[in-house]
Specification:
Shape: globular
CATH superfamily of the largest domain: Putative sugar-binding, N-terminal domain
CATH class of the largest domain: Alpha Beta
Structural class: alpha/beta
CATH topology of the largest domain: Rossmann fold
Helix content: 25-40%
Strand content: 15-25%
Distance between the termini: 31 Å
Largest sheet: 15 strands, mixed
Length: 420
């Protein structure tokens, strides 16, 4: 293994693995920390997918350090802590606490943080994170139910979570190339800076970072920085790295994300397939399991080559109303649990091609399905590949785990067309 990766959610893990595969690396994604008797096989990179983004910071640190121990024991030369391209976190963390714990464990006094992913509209300028043409705080992330992002200045955001000082490498330096970035890192380290937010506006910026970051023991980033790292290990792009077994079986989608992108994708699917969508109500789920049983009863006779959709996706005002009624944590847990049970029931009924929308939902579904390792295949949209895993019964299952904010409006139909 050349690169060891720790991701703070499951869709983020596949997002990172996707970019590494596109750059030629053979990648395996594990669901949770593998056992001590498991190895990395022939993978160039292993991405350990955790569900640690919104848990207690101490628990997130403990899980991340366990992943670090496993990766280092199997030869990982560099550690990549993968966070969301919108830097999702609370005032307490978990980005800062985990990044500093990894640095401490590796004896590292300086590292970088860069969630930029220009292909998906995430850019950083003067330390400010933009989503598309607006500041992070002016876009949909300001209404995120668990990690509302109201401050677009990443230096401030990270500093509130860290004991080390946080600095900035501005775009004027980044655009001058890898050598200039490396010099700036040394200058910041000499000033006692422990973390540096790095500006990025294009893939060319990310490629320059790849060269500059070659000797860093650990780095914190979204998936974008990954495109410049494989060549540090002598690896070039190769389509064979993305080959998966042939796909078959019934097709389905479960969506728990309430992002603006997922809302638009659900509506686009329902317009194209008006009789193949079923909405779940968190309020009804609070009364018992009958809506889960009803959803599976609705789905079973409809399973086939044409996908169907079971969703709890809803606009921001509807989400707030449910949260006011049930509480933020309980509302989220009800939806995750229900969709995970439904995903498991769909696979038991013959689904072999499954799209899951939403980071928390993806984590719950993959755990319910009992998948432990995923092979990463070809990209559907930036940040979202198809994956392949044996399910709990040992059968082949193709999975696409979509971050809520990712994908074009026709993503659901596009995904199955790409797999065909």
């Amino acid at each position: 293994m050349k690169l060891g990766c720790i991701a703070d959610d499951f869709t983020g893990a596949t997002d990172l693995a996707n970019n590494l595969v596109r750059a030629g690396m053979r990648v395996v994604q594990t669901i949770g920390v593998p056992g001590d008797d498991e190895d990395a096989g022939e993978a160039d990179a292993v991405v350990v997918a955790l569900k640690s983004r919104t848990i207690d910071p101490a628990d997130a640190v403990a899980q991340s350090l366990e992943a670090l121990r496993w990766l280092r024991a199997r030869g990982a030369a560099q550690i990549y802590f993968k966070v969301c391209s919108t830097f999702d976190s609370t005032e307490r963390g978990n980005i800062g606490p985990v990044a500093e714990a990894l640095m401490d464990a590796l004896g590292c006094d300086f590292s970088i943080a860069c969630p930029a992913f220009p292909a998906n509209g995430r850019t950083i300028y003067k330390g400010y994170l933009f989503t598309g043409d607006v500041l992070l705080s002016e876009g949909p992330m300001r209404d995120h139910p668990l990690t509302p992002m109201t401050d677009p200045n990443l230096v401030r955001v990270l500093q509130r979570q860290c004991r080390r000082r946080v600095g900035l490498i501005e775009h004027a330096v980044v655009s001058a190339g890898g050598a200039a970035i490396a010099r700036s890192m040394e200058e910041l380290r000499a000033q006692g800076i422990g973390h540096a937010i790095v500006d990025a506006l294009s893939d060319a910026d990310l490629m320059a970072m790849g060269t500059a970051f070659a000797t860093l023991p650990v780095l914190t980033a979204g998936s974008g920085v990954a495109i410049g790292l494989p060549r540090n290990f002598g690896i070039e792009a190769d389509a064979r790295a993305a080959q998966l077994p042939p796909a078959g079986g019934a097709a389905a989608i479960v969506s728990g994300s309430c992002s603006a992108a997922s809302n638009a994708q659900v509506q686009a699917f329902l317009q194209r397939h008006p009789d193949r969508g079923l909405a779940l109500s968190p309020s009804a789920l609070a009364q018992g399991d009958q809506p889960i049983d009803a959803a599976l009863a609705w789905a079973r006779p409809r399973l086939g080559d044409e996908p169907l959709l079971v969703y709890a996706t809803a606009p921001a005002d509807a989400v707030r109303a449910v949260q006011a009624q049930l509480g933020v944590q309980r509302a989220g847990e009800l939806v995750e649990r229900a969709l995970a049970r439904i995903a498991h029931g769909l696979v038991e009924a013959g689904v072999r091609r499954l799209v899951v929308a939403g980071g928390e939902t993806s984590g719950a579904c993959v755990q319910a399905l009992g998948a432990r390792r995923l092979r990463i295949g070809a990209q559907i949209d930036p940040g979202v590949p198809w994956c392949h895993a044996p399910d709990a019964a040992g059968r082949g299952l193709h999975l696409a785990l979509k971050s809520g904010n990712f994908g074009t409006v026709d993503f659901f139909d596009k995904a199955f067309e790409a797999l065909a």
